[in-house]
Specification:
two-stranded antiparallel sheet; globular; 42% helix; alpha/beta; 274 residues
Length: 274
């Protein structure tokens, strides 16, 4: 699958936006049948998404966000996807690996699943539960959970997360890496704040996230840049790998006045493999 740096949400009932989104530079499109589509528009959205999938061209990976497992809309979503060419299905309000398996049993194909893994209180206690080759990635959200527990917000006045949601973010990050899949940072709601987005995405990459969801096309270049290694980073990684190759069996070595050891080598190899 394409590297997942930027994943752009596109409302499923806006076919003209789906067509335009193909050329915006996102690594993946998330064709939404859930929150961005009013209940009365969901049949139209399913038809538009299916038509778009049937006419797909080369370009970004394509995911469809279906409605939650326990709602009344999922059966129609699944029926609309039968035989469709897509890369995966995003599952909202996922609650651990059991919910992924429930969805997979319903899906009309061997589609990989991208859970939104933190939208209910119970979900928080299953973030280390995900596993298997059927996962595409793991992501989280900071909007549904406070609503689910009666909190007024997930954010401080400066835009940073309050302590409970810092915990959820961290658990999602570690849960993804424990499952061996990409960890995808949640959205940055203010699409006009380019500087804030750049800082937010940079923190995500620093902490170990490998990509991020976007709510607006204007966010894609900033996200792609944040989750792409710079030439300086690549040069450093190559130098670390070359140093250890020249000194087989060494546990720790000096480079540019600093010690480098096995974790630095592993990080360098990971960066180059990406």
């Amino acid at each position: 699958m394409t590297r997942l740096r930027s994943l752009l949400f596109v409302p499923g009932d806006r076919p003209e936006r789906m067509e335009k989104a193909l050329g915006l530079g996102a690594d993946a499109l998330i064709l939404d049948l859930e929150d961005s589509v009013a209940p009365s528009r969901k049949p139209d959205a399913r038809a538009a998404v299916r038509a778009f999938l049937d006419a797909r061209h080369d370009g970004p990976a394509l995911f469809v966000r279906v409605n939650p497992l326990d709602g009344d809309e999922l059966a129609a979503d699944v029926a609309a996807l039968t035989g469709a060419a897509l890369d995966g299905v995003m599952l909202p309000k996922a609650e651990g690996n059991a919910s992924v398996e429930r969805l997979r049993a319903l899906l009309p194909g061997a589609y990989r699943v991208l859970p939104v893994a933190s939208e209910t209180a119970r979900a928080v206690f299953t973030l280390g539960d995900y596993r298997g080759d059927h996962l595409a990635a793991l992501t989280w959200g900071a909007e549904d959970l406070p609503a689910a527990i009666g909190a007024s917000t997930s954010r401080e006045e400066d835009g940073g997360y309050t302590d409970p949601y810092k915990v959820v973010r961290a658990l999602t990050l570690f849960g993804a890496h424990a499952a061996g899949v990409p960890a995808i940072e949640t959205v940055y709601p203010d699409f006009r704040d380019t500087d804030g987005l750049a800082a937010y995405a940079a923190r995500g990459r620093r902490d170990g996230f490998t990509g991020m969801m976007a709510i607006h096309p204007a966010q894609i270049p900033t996200i792609n840049a944040a989750f792409s290694p710079s030439e300086a980073e690549l040069a450093h990684a190559r130098a670390v790998v070359a140093l250890f190759a020249a000194n087989p069996g060494a546990g720790a070595l000096q480079m540019d006045g600093r010690m480098v050891d096995a974790p630095h080598l592993k990080a360098a190899e990971r960066l180059l493999n990406q």
